[in-house]
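Deliverable D5.2: sample structural annotation.
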Amino acid sequence: MNARTVYAVSELADILRGLLEDSLPSVWVSGEISNFSRPASGHWYFTLKDDRAQLRCAMFKNTNYYVRPQPKDGDAVLVRAKVGIYPARGELQMIVEHLEAAGTGALLRAFEQLKAKLAAEGLFDAALKRPLPQTPRVIGVITSGTGAALQDILNALARRWPLAEVALYPVPVQGKEAPPAIVRALRELPLRAPADVILLARGGGSLEDLWAFNDEAVARAIRACLVPVVSGVGHEIDFTIADFAADVRAATPTAAAELATPDIAERYSRVDTLDINLIGHIQRRIQQGREQALQLGGRLQRLHPGRRLQERAQRLDELDQRLRHAMQMRLAAKRDALTIRSKRFEAAVPLSRLIQLRERLRLLADRLQRGGRSTLIERSVRLRQAEALLNSLNPAAVLERGYALAMSADGRVLRDGGTVAAGDRVRVRLARGSFSAHVVPDPTDG
């Protein structure tokens, strides 16, 4: 009797799943969705059916995240999936890797072909992109006049940059009439209003819903527009030809409004910061000016000609006193020496000779006294002459006679009119007080 091979249910289910996955690694299937469900996990579960059969499908969260819009019962779709078995229920199941609306494949091919064509022409080159204005005064908006995208844009503009005026050019954003209307708006809006930037926007939708923004004429009109264009079409994952042609692409209409405008709250904060910095800078400059003025004032006092003349006059007084004292000491020494010699003579010579010598001594003493007095008078005269000469050279004395002393802004004394030019600032000192002045051309100069 041959031994029987017995499989557990789970083992056989794993074998069958392996056979299916190995023989059909990935297949494309078209059908209609029914029993669609989306639990809190974010995974999708639905049945794909046609008029004769149906298959259970699962599309997990990490795969279905980029599918927009979310499918619903009754949608005709095209899926790429792996076929397997769900062991817990023993049912045939497809794990969906990609899902698109039926007919989307042709649209995607047309999209890629047009994108490649325009890219080859250089229509999407970064060098063609124009910078957006820093502080737009007028913002043009091209979108549906009744759509939610318009309200999103207006709310964002009112919040971020209420100083700008909004110029709306309503257009249909879906259907055959949408592309020519958008082209006309891109051409006419800059002529109707002084727009600094234009927002081209609409809300999200399927590839068919957004197809007006994949029109070649719209792309060329964007590049031909007179002002920069920001595209905000669909949701973050949606891309259109208009996005590539625009100067700036935004993920949503709200994002387009935010990219085109500065944040007024940030500007206010920046102005406050600049104001504080400016006040601090001015205060520091004032303090530095005060300190510099004190330093220059002290330096001027030390170098002032009047003070130097006072020092010289004091030195002359000291020299005069020393000279007088020296003359007196010399005369006293001569008198003492003569007295000593007189006494010696009186002791060494006869009386007559002593009388002659005494008379001669008297004469010599008189001559010496007259000579010393004459020398003292002569020195005093010379001292007074030197003092008079110093007084005549004193700038303060010159100023007392009605003259003025002109100095440059850096404190240099001006002696030549050719060293200053019209508009220079000078300082004029008088005998009493001083003032500042600006140099003006002399009308008498030829």
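Annotation notes: The chain has a mean pLDDT of 85. The longest strand covers residues 27-37.
The annotation will be released with the project's public dataset once the embargo ends.
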